[in-house]
Structure formats: structure tokens, C-alpha cells
Amino acid sequence: MAAAAQAATGSVVTARIDTAALIDNARTVAARVAPARLMAVVKADAYGHSIDIVAPALYAAGLRDFAVATVPEAVALSQLLGPDSGARILCWLFDSAADLTACTCAGIELGISTPEALEAAIAAGRATGRTQDVHLKLDTGLGRNGLSLSQLDTVLERLRALAAESSIAAGAQATTGPPTSAPMRVTGIMTHFANADIPGDPATADQLHRFDSFYGRLQAELPSDLRADDLRVTLANSPASLSLDPVPGSHVRAGVILYGLSPFENRTAAQLGLTPVMTLTSRVLNVKNVPAGQGASYGLTYRAAHDTRFALVAGGYGDGLPRIAGNRGEVTVRGRRYPIVGRIAMDQMVLDIGPAETGGEVAIGDEVVVIGDGATGPSAEEWAAWCETINYEIVTCISPRVDRIAVGAPGEAAAGEAATGAPPAADHTRGGGW
User: Fold this and answer.
1) Cα angle value 108/111/112 (rounded, 5°)
2) Residue 229 phi/psi, 5° resolution?
3) Catalytic: 137?
4) Under a CB-based contact definition with an 8 Å cutoff, are residues 154 and 76 in contact?
5) How far is it, in rounded angstroms, from Cα 88 to Cα 327?
6) Element housing 172 (H / E)
7) pTM for the whole thing?
8) Which of 36, 127, 196, 391 could disulfide-pair with 240, CB 3.0 to 4.6 Å?
9) Does the annotation count 43 as an active-site position?
């Protein structure tokens, strides 16, 4: 399948996205966090895995809660899943100049981190004549986005005023026509952990304590007319979903673990019961004999210690493979690891595959596993170590010119459910719902 796709598109570097592994990871996480429910984070093109593949696959498996970062991502996801999908989509990153009416019309829920964002949400509700659902995002210690204590004071004061305005408007409308709804409603409360990837870190316990204080106040002071009866409470990200027991909140926002990647420095995906979803492959474009002293790639930062062979492989930093991995990284050809020598260029890299008499059998056209599961090829965690970063960045930075090809797709029943929008029967073997 992948080879046929390459022939059709001309793409040499290809990311194979295993949807069966994706769904299995999601079910593993859902069982772990129950009775909290799973919200799939599919921002940044599903962490580089293609939202066009990931979101429909999860939807076909029964998932209905999704989260992205930006408004354009949310609108695109809503269009992808369809207006009658029944999916709930949350986004939280926008500025005060953003036009939020498309979100209001599509039923997309907005994370509110400033009083200005609240005003923008209210304005969108009024402009469309609909109710804009929002989640109040609280800064409990990350120091990033989210309402501070003083900002929360401002928001609560505004909500009390809005509730009073809505009550007066509803009373007046009752004598002249059908009742009107408030322009916005609080449907969720959320925060984000700073150090949940360090199990036992006291900062996490401190954030939980602060959240409890915030939440108690919101329960007491949120105007009843402007709040949903079943507030969704989301605190746990991927590491918190796997390290906290019990998992706090009604939902978890799981991202990187859905893609089979570990959020912990000292625990592998396999140890967490997860399977990497992406396999990044390329092909050998050239094999040549080179003499001792021959340099490789720009800057000649590597020179052959003896007569050897170089293999040229498609793929470089233009495809999202960091330049820093030159002279550090490895790839796999025919089940054997070979070092990347010299600098990784924009479109290609060089391997030292050893002399013909002692090196491996490598030929033009051979498949190269650039990123695998650690056994099939180097893992994203290994690439992260070579590049002095984290696995999140490795997969998210795979560039758009790399074709994403779905493999391991769900069976006919799931595909039928996706086409009709009908939710599949509950899977009680998971120990909890999505």
C-alpha cells in the first residue's frame, strides 16, 4: 500500500499511520482513566500524524470528544467530521481580535483565559443569536495561559452582570415573543499541569490544591443561568492521565499517548502498554564505494576512516528531520542499523554502510526505516535524544511534504459507523466509556 502510494504521488519519504494501533492506544488510555472520559487532543495536525486520518479513525471507533489549540484547527475539524457528527470540539488559543462566530455557528467550545476572551465569546454569541459554550481555563501554577485570581474576579463579576442582563431580556421577551437564550454558557472548567511528567513532583499536588480552591469558588459563584448542569472538568494531560491515581476530573485531555509515545523520560511506550502509530520510511537513492578520507555532506564534518561505502537516503530537515542528528543518529535498512554521517541536508542524508565484504547488503531502492518503534527502526525517543529535544517535537515537526498513509484501518463495521455518523455499540471490555 505504501509503495503504491509513493509511486502515485512521487513522495519518497512517507509516514505510515497505523490506525489500529491508534485505536488500541485510545482504548488502553480510556480504560486507565475511567470513570473519567477520554478527550482526544488532535492539535498540530494530530501531532504530525494527520488529522485527516486520526480524527475519522477515532470517531469511527466511537470517540466523540476532541480538542485542538486554534480556531482554524477547530473549524477544520468540525468540517471534517460533519455538522451532524455529534462530536464536541474544544479549542483555547486565540487572541482578542479573532472572529469567533464560525465557532459559535459550528457549536465549537472555547477555552477562556482572559476577560477579553470572554467578551469576544459573548460578542460572537450575540452576533449569531446563538449560545457560545465556554470552558473557563484557570492558571493554577503553570504560569502560561489561564485566568489568574484577579482575572477570575473580573470574569465572575462580568458573568453576574450578564446573568442579570439576560434575566431582564428574557422577562421582556416573554411578553413579546419566543424567549431568547443567553449569548454564552459555561460548560467546562480546565487547567493544565506543569510537571505531571515527573511523577510525584510536589508542584502537581500544589496545582491540584489550587484547582480545588478555584473550583469550589466557581461552584458557589457561577450564575446558575449561565452554567451547564454537567460541567466538564479537565485537568489531566497525557502524563497526568498515566501517573495520577485517581485521575482527577470528568475528562482527560490525552495527546501524545494516543500516538503511542511516552510522556515520561524513563518509561518507554512499551512499558506503558502503548504502540507507536507512526512509521517514517524512505528509500536508498544511491550506493557508492568511497576511499578512506572521503568526506560526507556539507562541511565535511565526517570523513571515512577506511575504504567503505556511502548510501544516500532521501529525507532531511525539509522533511522535519533535525540537522543536529547528523553524526549522531541512525536508521535501519534490511533490519540493520547504520549511522547517519555528516550533516543532514534539506532533502537527503548519507549513511556509512561499511565495505562490501564486511558491511550489510544495501541496494538502491531498499526501504529505510527512519523512525520506527525501536525494534523496526529508531524510535521517536531515540531521535529526541540525538536532537536534544522531546519525542513530541520529533513527530510534530514532520513536514507537510511527507505523505501520511493510513494502514491498519478499522474493519467494515467501524467504517460504516463513520459514514452514517451512528455511534458504535458500547465496548464494555474497556472498563469505561470514551
Assistant:
1) 130
2) -70, -35
3) no
4) no
5) 46
6) helix 149-174
7) 0.90
8) 196
9) yes
